[in-house]
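hey so i finaly got around to running the thing on Carboxymuconolactone decarboxylase family protein from Winogradskyella echinorum. pasting the sequence first so u can double check i didnt mess up the copy paste, my clipboard has been acting weird all day
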Amino acid sequence: MALVTPLSAEHDLETKKLAEFFNETLGFCPNSVLTMQRRPAISKAFINLNKAVMANEGRVTSALKRMIAWVSSNSTGCRYCQAHAIRAAERYGAEQEQLDNIWEYRTHPAFNEAERAALDFSLAASLVPNGVDADIKKRLYEHWDEGEIVEMLGVISLFGYLNRWNDSMGTDIEEGAVESGNKYLGKHGYEVGKHDGSQY
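ok and heres what it spat out for the C-alpha cells, dont ask me to read them lol
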C-alpha cells in the first residue's frame, strides 16, 4: 500500500476531465494523480503544468521530452517515474533502438549529439548538488535555442516534483507501466521496488 491511498477517478470530476490527457500519454490515469486529488487544487494544477511542459513549441519532440524525463528519474532512482517515462516515450514514437539502448545514450549510435546534449543536461540538472556547468551550457547552445532549453528544464523540473512525490508516497505502479519498465529497462535490473504495493 502507498503512504496515501489513491481515490477513485470519479472523486473530482474536474480532475477526471483534465486527466484524459494521460489516456494519450500513458493509456491510464496515474495513481499519483488519483492521490493528488485529495486536494483537487493540487491535482488540477499539476495536470495543467504537465500539459504545458509537454506541449511542443520548438524542436524538442514528445519522445525526447519523455527520454529527458527518464534520465532525470533514473538519476534520482524513482522506479515509478522511470517506467512511466519510458512507456510515454514509446507511445510518442521514440525509435525502437533508442528505447532499447536508453542506458547507453552517451555512446550508442541511435542518439545524435543534440539528443546527447539534452540528456546530459537532464542528468546534470537532476543531480544533488546540481551539475549544470559551462560545458553543459555550451553543448546545449550548439543544438538548441533558449525556448527549447526552457522546455527541457520544464520537463526536468516537473519530474523532480514527481520523483519526490512518488518515491515518498510509495505510489503503487500500474500494470501497463510495469510492462514497459520490464520490457525496456529489465535487462539492466529494473524492478518496481517500493512501488509494488507493499511499502507501508
